[in-house]
Amino acid sequence: MSKPIIAPSILAADFANLQRDIEMINHSEADWFHIDIMDGVFVPNISFGMPVLRDIVKHATKFMDVHLMIVDPDRYIETFASLGANMLTVHYEACTHLHRTLQAIKAAGMQAGVALNPHTNVSLLEDVINDIDLVCVMSVNPGFGGQSFIENTCAKVEQLKALITRKGAKTLIEIDGGVTDKNAAKLVNAGADVLVAGSYVFKSENPEQAILRLK
Ligand code: DX5
Ligand code: ZN
Q: CDD domains, alphabetically (predicted)?
């Protein structure tokens, strides 16, 4: 079992001390920054937008994993590329022409991710899986940090892993929502490659130790 990629979610950081929290991730064993962009339409919450991401990128020294929880994400692909996103993940449920969106993300020089809401079956990706660099399996309903993990996620990860293997794809599996040291090993055993963690990292007394525990 190889070590998972750990992606702390900035949504749970202290926005009045953002540079401090970014430096903590820079110096920690975390691998990626996970950035949650919400529009108040696709999800019932608004997080932060371009000016904040621009300033995060100035200080962050690791891979930028940007998760768009917005309708019609095609409008902003070029913008996020120019801001420094390395992975741009769009929601399956927000894209009418998913294949076209994936090509546009790659043409803009980024890796392309697709997020699935808890009710969305992995089999819907059958025809595009070879075009996807990362599938983000939502283990909570998107929109808020600090929610509890939906247990069905492990079975879903196993199904997705089987699909990726059968299709000979190189797609990474990411889990987003309610990840803690209690479910991390089980998720990695089921086939997860990337673990996003917000509250578990930032609400713990020692965030760097929390990141190590997830590894
Ligand atoms: C939820 C976001 C998550 C969130 C995870 O909509 O996509 O990335 O920040 O937070 P925790 O780890 O607290 O569930
Ligand atoms: Zn996220």
A: RPE
